[in-house]
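For reproducibility, we list the full input for the alpha-L-rhamnopyranose complex.
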Amino acid sequence: MPEVSIDLDMKRITNDAFVKIARECEPDLLEKTVRPEKIVTIELDQDKNPVITRERPINELSEIEMKKGDRVCLDFGHHQVGYVTLRLKSVGSPQDAPAFFKLKFGEIARELTENSEDYNGWISRGWIQEEFMHVDVLPATIVLPRRYAFRYLEITTIDTSMKWQLVVEEVTCKSVSAVDMDKVEPYATEDEMIKQLDAASLRTLQNCMQSVFEDGPKRDRRLWLGDLRLQALANYETFKNYDLVKRCLYLFAGLTRDDGKIGACLFIEPEYIVDDTFLFDYSLFFVASLYDYYIETKDMDTVKDLWPSALRQIELANEYFDEKMLVVIPEGFTCFIDWTEGLDKQASAQAVYLYCVKRGLELAKVLGDDENEAWLTGQITEKQDAAKKWLWDEKQELFVSGSQKQISYASQVWMILADIFNKEENKKLLNHIIDLDPEKGMVSPYMNHHFVEALILCDEKEKAMDYMKYYWGGMIREGADTFWELYNPKNPGESPYGSSIVNSYCHAWSCTPTYLLRKYFK
Ligand code: RAM
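The corresponding predicted structure, in tokenized form, follows.
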């Protein structure tokens, strides 16, 4: 459990002009009415894996008379994000007691086999998508007020009475998104697995593209900068909704701490507000995200507006360096990189800094900002020299991190992405860490994305493709329709939160196979 910082006194500043631009870019959400495709029974097999043991056509639903303890599970065919309406009636004697039933929504089948009472993790159990409902008078049409993220909906009658039964006549979902994946051509390939990787990526991205780029529509349902950067890249290769990226960039720059620091995440309801979580890497990724946006759109007005905010992130990041010019990451949840437990983040953070500042330097050149071009060049030299001098272990031929000189995938991958060595050296380094397969591996699709990108940059495209099929393909083989927040093939039940019940199974940062395929495997 990371140490949580709560800063009730944090002072915030709002740039009204930026917020106005963000509001103007707010999307109208597209709506589609979706109906369940079939009735399924989900059970655990001997190895405790969920399996569908029975399927029935959906038109049988209105014939099922549910009494105390009965349950039906509806499969909507694909992952949905939307608002659910139930049409209910009673059969038998007049309704002499309330209908009392439970609704349980699952993004994947496994969630329906988990018992929420067993949940003992450190984030709110409020994220578990479960409702207990009383309906006094039937027939009734119940429009549920919350937005759900799900593929499966299980309805359990807790009680009716001895004299009447509940009938679910119809269930519909008004699915919402800022974009429509049916408008995007699938990635052209004959390979079935690659087709599925592309489709699941597109659906993941579509379902996370709401009023802002959400990290996950089940949880946390908000805008995180690290997630935004990867979503934006995937969006450029697919939906090309530039306004949504612009909106998010202006929101981050328009709602900051009073020293200009950009938050790790933002809430948009009940009103726009920056959270009090700040991550070293995420604030810096504002620079990289602005650079990527520029490369894609050449929208100079936005770049000019947001350049001071980007520069400010670099200035503020500089406060974290010691006299050797090495970054010192404070205790607590202050830098993300990956959810790998016990990961030392110093080397990765140093590399993320270089990665972002190098992109800042390109922006300075585009803007003709000579003064900052010179300043940024100096920053890069200083911090890059320090990385080579203090973090590169000549004997082991690896980057080491922190006082324990930890060796991890993350440190090597980020140093490769930071472009410190030449391609041949990077290739040697990457293959070295793969052979070593250190204990500090990678558990989030986010970190695995960076690993694949490093392989591609080292001209190891075949390995990159094989790895995508192994890693994201592993989720497909487990029945994924959208990609997950966390997937560790070596430990499928893993969760950063103490229990997988609250894991998100449609998580934006995992949508990048569609980007990697379309950008690098044309
Ligand atoms: C998780 C979020 C998000 C990620 C942060 C660091 O809580 O789901 O995806 O960016 O952690």
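The first strand starts at residue 12 and ends at 14. The mean pLDDT is 97. Both points were considered when choosing residues for closer inspection.
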